[in-house]
Amino acid sequence: MRPIRLPEPPIGRRSAAEVFEAGIYGIIKRVVVIGNGFSGAENQCIGLVRALGLSGCHTLYRVTRPRGGINKWLHWLPVSLHKKLDYVIRQICIYSGVQVEARWSKVVPFAVEKTGLSSVIEADAKQIAMMARDTFEKEGPLLVIASGRDTISVASSIKRLATENVFLVQIQHPRSWLNRFDLVITPQHDYYPLTPHGQRQIPWFLRRWITPRRPPDRHVVLTVGALHLADSAALRSAASVWHDELALLARPLLVVNIGGPTSSCQYGADLAKQLIAMLQNVLWSCGRVRISFSRRTPEKVSKILLKEFSSNPKVYIWDGEGPNPHMGHLAWADAFVITADSVSMLSEACTTGKPVYVIGAERCTWKFADFQKSLRERGAVRPFTGKEDISESWSYTPLNDTAEAASQVMKALAARGWTIDA
């Protein structure tokens, strides 16, 4: 079995001298995370919290949109306007005698197994800012970390209302007015619209509306991929938890992660059939194959793969029941095959330093094609052709975006005279 290669540990504790120099009011001991209900965005915040050494010191708040009914067509609206319009529509329905759907405006609960929380507080900028101001002398500054379009207005309002008490980090590009944030952390492919290739793909009359509008300045931190939870501690823990199920499997172990089509990476049953043919061709070189689907995987895709491989003794397909083996797969796999649509899954796999094969990259367009190109140029991924010998390996410098982003946060805090009590 190949040794498990893990990323470097997160930033360690500060020395007593460093903490003393920051002053009693300059030590950050707490974090507010502003989420949007999507694990892909919220896990980036939690991953950064862990890399900063502040696990267990954060409170999760959420900006929620109304759900059900006509609301699925209103996601393009600013979240505050969406909520007001939803309220008006519901009142009209009530007064007109129209029965509102049971799911109307329902807030989907956050998965307990992912956060350890049974409920999440709705984010209120005024309340959080007041808390930051009122507790500053006793608790010190408040670090606010947010991710996702819907969190931008709330997070920036917190900063505006408690400027001297808050350090605000926004993950993912906030589109405009970057000076609202102390630090912006975003993948470098978000700046693809500024490249010559990107400019040729944008009609001239739309260019002023495509963000970013200017190159990154000193308070923008660029990463290769997405931040995530798969740090060294998490993978070592997963290696232990999943030892009995995965350690004794025949080698090499190939893990196949399947996401779902997006507007910039479209596919369907055609890709599933292509993947089946390729996997059949490499099965001879695999000890075992384990396949996992994401919540975005179309049913027609999963059904095709289940029909083909459910009776194959060499192939295991996780059916969504029981504990999610994703972290165990990251820890124990010898190689990965991943669909090109998922920046998060590719970022996690490329953190392990193990071979990562990509299927469907040729279907990606716009900045997602640029992301695929950057991974290939780093030697982190190769296209999956079905001609591979999975027992062969190659080396590359693993992605370490989350730890590197945490280092930049520490530097920005130090420039303000603050430090972290981790």
TrEMBL record:
Q: Name one Pfam family in it.
A: Mito_fiss_Elm1
Q: Name one GO cellular component term.
A: mitochondrial outer membrane
Organism domain of life: Eukaryota
Which SUPFAM superfamilies does this entry report, sorted A to Z? UDP-Glycosyltransferase/glycogen phosphorylase
Q: Which InterPro entries match?
A: Elm1-like
A biological process from GO: mitochondrial fission
| Segments crossing the lipid bilayer | none
Q: What is this protein called?
A: Mitochondrial fission protein ELM1
Q: Which organism is it from?
A: Gossypium klotzschianum
